[in-house]
Write a structure and sequence with these properties.
256 residues; mainly alpha; two-stranded antiparallel ribbon; 9 helices; 2 strands; 56% helix; disordered N terminus
């Protein structure tokens, strides 16, 4: 790995925290050329009580999030309770509240972890595949999201925000689970913009963020349709999602 930083914030690893500062050298078009906003969710969203530092606390924190994800698959976000999560994680309810102020904070932390893991997986795919332009980037982005949708516990209920339309009791601001200052898809767009580096460097950064946000909104709608009647996602609709996003990005001034 090189010591070059692509400006991507640290990511939550699979059960551990890893730094995203030192990434393997990617194609020149992905090199970082300017500062992109850090929307790292657990710095800005919600009233998280504290982040664990000691290994034992980190293990409990991860176990609580794992329990939350598993229960989401069983009971859904609306019926989920912090008491059930604590019981599944085999920790006292007081321990859960040391880390999370309530249900909204718990779901926000899970969404943040999902996004961190998604970006980590996507970054590995980008390094391995060397995609051509934003269109190639978007294909891999859709594929990784679909892969997580199929395999990651709880992802069908909470991906980078609430996946359903119903807002559970105890959640006051579902549109800002990742970042208190911007909506969830804008937060994701900023992180993707940072990960893409020079792929999204042409033109006005704010306009690029808006473009990515619109692409995310469109992709989200089509993928929800793809998974509505098929737990693995309708292949034809997934292909249409990729085609739609690729075509939209190609029409933009910085499209490729």
């Amino acid at each position: 790995m090189s010591e070059r930083s692509m400006g991507v914030p640290p990511a939550e690893g699979w059960g551990r925290t890893v730094e995203r500062g030192a990434l393997r050298e990617a194609p020149a078009e992905r090199s970082k050329v300017g500062a992109v906003a850090d929307t790292r969710s657990h710095h800005t969203a919600g009233p998280t009580r504290r982040r664990p530092v000691q290994q034992r606390s980190q293990e409990r924190y991860s176990r609580i999030l794992d329990a939350c994800a598993g229960l989401l698959d069983e009971v859904g976000a609306t019926a989920l309770t912090t008491k059930e999560v604590a019981q599944r994680a085999q920790v006292p309810i007081g321990t859960l509240y040391q880390f999370f102020a309530g249900k909204e904070d718990l779901l926000a932390a899970l969404a943040a972890r999902n996004l961190d893991r998604y970006l980590q997986r996507l970054d590995a795919r980008l390094d391995a595949s060397a995609p051509v332009g934003p269109a190639g980037f978007s294909d891999l982005a859709v594929e990784e999201f679909v892969a997580m949708k199929r395999a990651v516990p709880g992802f069908g209920q909470v991906d980078f925000g609430l996946a359903g339309t119903a807002v559970p009791a105890g959640v006051r601001d579902e549109k800002h689970l990742l970042d208190a200052g911007v909506d969830n898809n804008t937060a994701v767009a900023l992180r993707l913009q940072a990960l893409g580096g020079e792929l999204f460097a042409a033109g006005d950064p704010a306009a690029t963020t808006l473009t990515l946000r619109v692409a995310l909104e469109a992709a989200d709608a089509v993928l929800k349709l793809a998974f509505r009647g098929d737990p693995d996602g309708d292949p034809a609709l997934i292909a249409e999602c990729k085609r739609l996003v690729r075509g939209y990005l190609a029409q933009q001034p910085s499209g490729g």
